[in-house]
Protein 1
Amino acid sequence: MTYHTSRRRLLGFASTIALTGALLAGAYTKASSLPAGQLGADTPTFTSGSRGEPAGGRHFWDQLDLESADAWSRLRANFRWQDQWRQGAGHERVQHWIDEYSESPHNIREITERARPWLAWILERVEARGLPGEIALIPFVESAFDPEARSRFGAAGLWQIMPRTGDALGLRRGRGWDGRLDVVRSTRAALDYIEDQAAQWYEGDIELSLAAYNAGAGTVNRARRRALARGLDGDYWDLALPDETMDYVPKLLAIAAIIEAPERYGVRLPAIDSGPAFARVPVTRPVRLDEAARHAGVSTGTLSRLNPGLRGDIARPGQVRELLVPTDRAERLVAALSRPAPADSAVPEVHVVQRGDTLSGIASRHALAVADLARWNDIDRPDALQPGQQLTLSGR
């Protein structure tokens, strides 16, 4: 039971070296966050011509007027592996996880509720690449669809990307930003990663690439050589891998099987529209998150959850290219950002050093990376700040 991709994307020489190093180092080895029992032109972009929760605890998504189109039906139509595993070598291993998950249908409901803002958009990206629909459920296994998830090994985000691998994939990190938590960029990077290593190591075999996504290509390649030496085919189901990796594809297939027939397992899935729930609004001037939320007409908590890569309360053009906003609120925010900031909400462009200030403290206060702040102000000795000294906060 395999699925092959015909994609052969050429990487730049330097990127290939960096990515290959991360793969061979087993950069993705980590614990799954799911409980055992339980930017491009791909999204609308609108351009101009305190992180609180919504009142009463209601999510913005509960108030959306959903159309008849349904993301779950669309996802099921893209499943490619559901008939194969029932007849193949993985039957017993997949059935084990179906039994485990179906014992806690409330856990599945909770996780699929968290998937509501992201599922349709991720599925579009999977469809565009011709990949099996099951791939859209990898965040279920990796992070329980929590964009803020972090593992004890250092992996972060929906796709649980390790720091070194994120660096190789171009996902910037700094005090005010972590690209691994940005759903748009991390999704693109994770799917690139899966396809690229399938092409590089496994002649397009996606299942082997998923094993390498979890354990690292070095671990999978060694296991494959041992299987081939024993006269086996060397596909995923032949390999002796770490326990977590042995369970990785079976978990993915198990949750897809439950989503294919949720009523059979007593699972009630939340209603999710088949179209993306968010649009991308370019950040054309520094803006506080609460100000942006007010202009968009949503809670600060809603905007915060849509932009988990932003690690502070200020979005600056030098750090953040865009904000994700509920689709039907984007034009309001675009119009507001095209106007000068009100005096009472303007983000400071300069910090005047006070007695006791440190460069790291100033950077933290303004959600900036220390290295950026030092570079913008030509600071070679961070310990030599003087009271009254003015520091630019934007690099301009």
Protein 2
Amino acid sequence: MAKRDYYEVLGVSRNATEAEIKKAYRAKAKELHPDRNADRPEAEALFKEVNEAYDVLKDPQKKAAYDQFGHAAFEAGGPGAGGFRHGGPQGDADFASAFSDVFDDLFGDFMGHRGGRRRTAARRGSDLRYNLRVTLEEAYTGKRQTITVPGSAKCESCDGTGAEDGSAPVTCPTCSGMGKVRAQQGFFTIERTCPTCSGRGQVVKNPCRACGGSGRVHRERTLNVNIPPGVETGTRIRLAGEGEAGVNGGPPGDLYIFIEVAPHPIFEREGPDLHCRVPVPMTTAALGGEIEVPLLDGGRTRVKVPAGVQSGKQLRLREKGMPNLRGGRHGDLYLELQVETPVNLTPRQKELLREFEAAGKDNSPHSSNFFSKVKSFWEGMTG
């Protein structure tokens, strides 16, 4: 089968410049690379054809011979004979450089860069987490809390460079600052992290004595944290730049404070609302009256109890609950009344209750209704 015209293979005109030929080769090689075309059996042959065409057209002498004699220039005895990839050491170097560019296009993102010199690996510091427990009263009013955070900070002796005062990190001699080294294995070029600089691209010849060359030192810091009113368990407060120090001049991480609100002996919280179970004397529940109840802000208020109230009755005090974290109205306070049966009665109290029972008539509507249903149930079973 006759060979295709090399200019046609690369998709360029005969008067294309060296840069245009190289650009076209990179695009074709990237498009037809076998690793990207597992479902196209013909891709490998086309990929080799593209490489063969570029090997000729990138070299001025081979290109001139091809322009004059065509493919015959490279057949046995032809003026350009010598075969594929025999353009001398410089020609091989040019081809390797072009293929290296294609390799970067294909795998650059995976390797962590897109060609060119790799800049020093300045890395952001890690984020830190601090768990802070507050009382319900503190969550209600807000507070200013002082905390101690262990972690790493930028070394002040070397200003985070890791180098002794008066010196500076130098370009890694192994990878020339790229942070990666390449090894040729047959047709492919394999990249790996530079073992000398661990991917940083720079090495420290005179490490700082204070931090051992890391640019960071372990240090406990004391911070003042503002706990806003209305926080609840799970609330997260972010302190930007208060996390671990960065590496190689990178920015510091953040500190996240996670709030946990401790249980309260009187109040239970449900979102912005508060709930409180209040015992009510039997006489007050029967006759009605007033009871005094506490508020979370430390105050107190009197609440009217309607006569004949039953256990479980809820009274609502508007905007006596928790403040809203994002502003706006407070939640509500719900009082759940629990009618209390008296204990440890005196003989006289017992006597009075027996008199009350004997004189009572239809004083317990729920009880009368319940036993009426029970009686109907039993009659239905026996019938």
